[in-house]
Amino acid sequence: MLLVENGPECRVTIKSVQDTMDILSGKWKLSIMCALSFSSLRFMDLVREVDGIRSKMLSSNLYELEINGLVKRTVLDTKPLTVSYELTEYGKTIKPIIHEMSIWGRHHRDKILGT
Amino acid sequence: MLLVENGPECRVTIKSVQDTMDILSGKWKLSIMCALSFSSLRFMDLVREVDGIRSKMLSSNLYELEINGLVKRTVLDTKPLTVSYELTEYGKTIKPIIHEMSIWGRHHRDKILGT
DNA sequence: CCGGATCCTTATTGATACTG
DNA sequence: CAGTATCAATAAGGATCCGG
Questions:
Q1: Of A3, A17, A105, which is closest to B105 when you measure between CB atoms?
Q2: Whole-model pTM?
Q3: Cβ-count burial of B109 within 10 angstroms (0-12 exposed, 13-18 middle, 19+ buried)?
Q4: Which of chain B's residues have a Cβ under 8 Å away from the Cβ of A106?
């Protein structure tokens, strides 16, 4: 069904792709959302999960994602205060993008290593 | 075929998403590939199609896409020499990503304008 | 130790002009 | 037409510091 190239809701436009890129561009946002697509995570969990990210970048990217309504931030009343992040219902709507990117990334890796 | 959510080949990982981002990251690459997903285009057509891009960015992004085997460059024997760009067969494998991004982008725009 | 904030350096992108 | 060259602006990255 994703391969149907016609139909009114299948009008692929550069503008709509750019709109998406405006929200998701940057080196880390999709990786962060991918990590959160499995479960909610605390800040430090994210630092560990997202390979190579620095707390500064994580912090600012999470803020932007929160502003755009994709991620929800919750301060937990734990001993040393921790903050939990999770995808909002709206944030979960980008899962198909993450899914396709993951498929392609693995495919690409196989191609590079196989050749 | 692309919608199977289970099975061994559907393990979504941060690493594979990052691998994809390494190839497609940047503000313009997906827009360029979106433009080329309809038909092959000459350099100047791409400047017109991809809103806001400058020839420098287009040139360097096309080069990187060519290096990664996603785009094919063909010098045409026209009066003022022109160069045509098209997706390779491998480049066409990112169409599902573009498709999902386009769907989400339109959805997002409707949400922003509707609210 | 957690979640940043700040400062500074490097990499990427943008605007404009210019060449074969 | 299809790029390059150059310089200015912006974004990302590294190191360090701080309040709780």
A1: A17
A2: 0.89
A3: middle
A4: 9, 11, 13, 16, 19
Q: How far apart are CA B57 and CA B62, in angstroms?
A: 8
Reported as a single tens digit per residue, the pLDDT across B39-71 is 999 999 999 999 999 999 999 999 999 999 999
Residues from chain B that touch A20, judged by Cβ atoms under 8 A, are: 101-102, 104-105, 108
Which residue spans within chain A are E strands per DSSP?
41-42, 71-76, 82-87
Convert the pLDDT of each residue in B3-26 to its tens digit: 344 444 558 899 999 999 989 988
Termini Cα distance of chain A: 31
Element counts in chain B: helices (H) and strands (E): 5, 3
Partners of residue A75 on adjacent β-strands: A83
